[in-house]
Design goal:
It is a single chain. 44% of the residues lie in helices and 17% in strands. It has 286 residues and is α/β, with parallel strands linked by helices. The chain has one domain: NAD(P)-binding Rossmann-like Domain (Rossmann fold, 3-Layer(aba) Sandwich), CATH 3.40.50. Helix 1 (11-22) crosses helix 6.
């Protein structure tokens, strides 16, 4: 069975392609990073891909990422994350293709969150109005080997980089708000579980996380200890558009009951695996 993965060259997309292959599915990618013509904003290009390859399902991960970073790219975020998502949904409707959307917990008031919320609404509309089989997955703080530390400032790769270089580790705000950190292979398995169960859970939306909250400050301290680093924590202002004050932890039971998915990699082990990878690939620190 052919499965199209948009954003396939991204951090999560690469892991999803590996999971599909291991499970005997023909996953293939659609990503601007691989082919400059592979732009989800281009309806004609999408049409050609769907018409020629006839996928049975789409994992839609493509989009512009960022918290404060997208305030200067608002139009691009809208065109990619909203219009692009609408384009993919239209193709799925036309070619009778199942649709699994990579969304996020709704946090803060920034272009990324707002455009992802719009993607959620579009996905629900296509299910309820057109009967398209859809599932929305909301991964929490995914991390793991080969996650880029720039240009979007993801916490764990930045913490690890600074720790390995014995540089100050910057923490936005107090760093005491609880977050749910989930290892990337667990997230990829969640997408596979959604695909396998989409016929019975169509229209559903699921948190993807561990259900365990750990603060960024504590994660940074764990990384310092695991690396034997001399780094110190430095608190800086919260990012523009990051207004949350409460813990953001997944409710994992729904995904377990309806998808059979449960995260398996504990944070301490996931951090060790990730740190070991960066130690072997120090070129990623520059």
């Amino acid at each position: 069975m052919r499965v199209l993965v948009t954003g396939s060259d991204g951090f999560l997309g690469k892991y999803i392609l590996k999971v599909l292959k291991r499970n005997g599915l023909h996953g293939y990618g659609y990503d601007v990073a691989v082919d400059h013509r592979a732009d989800i904003r281009d309806r004609e290009a999408l049409e050609r891909v769907f018409a020629s390859s006839k996928p049975k399902a789409v994992f839609h991960l493509a989009g512009l990422l960022g918290t404060s970073e997208l305030f200067d790219e608002l139009e691009a975020a809208i065109q990619t994350n909203i219009v692009g998502t609408a384009n993919v949904l239209e193709m799925c409707r036309k070619y009778d293709c199942k649709f699994i959307f990579c969304s996020k917990p709704s946090l803060g008031l920034n272009p990324y969150t707002i455009t992802k919320d719009a993607g959620d609404a579009l996905t629900k509309m296509f299910h309820e109005v057109y009967g398209l089989k859809t599932v929305i997955l909301r991964p929490h703080n995914a991390y793991g080997p080969a996650q880029k530390w720039k240009p979007v400032k993801k916490a764990i790769p930045n913490f690890i980089r600074s720790a390995l270089l014995n540089e100050p580790i910057e923490i936005f705000g107090s760093g005491e708000i609880l977050c749910d950190w989930i290892y990337v292979t667990d997230v990829a398995e969640a997408f596979l579980a959604a695909f396998k169960n989409i016929d019975k859970v169509a229209g559903g939306a699921f948190d993807i996380g561990t259900g365990i909250g750990v603060s960024a400050k504590d994660v940074a301290q764990m990384i310092i200890e695991l690396t034997g680093s001399k780094s110190q924590l430095v608190h800086i202002h919260k990012r523009l558009g990051e207004v949350r004050e409460n813990a953001v932890v997944a409710e994992p039971e729904s995904a377990f009951k309806k998808l059979g998915f449960r995260a398996h990699v504990p944070l301490n082990r996931g951090l060790r695996l990730t740190i070991d990878w960066y130690k072997k690939h120090r070129e990623w620190l520059t």
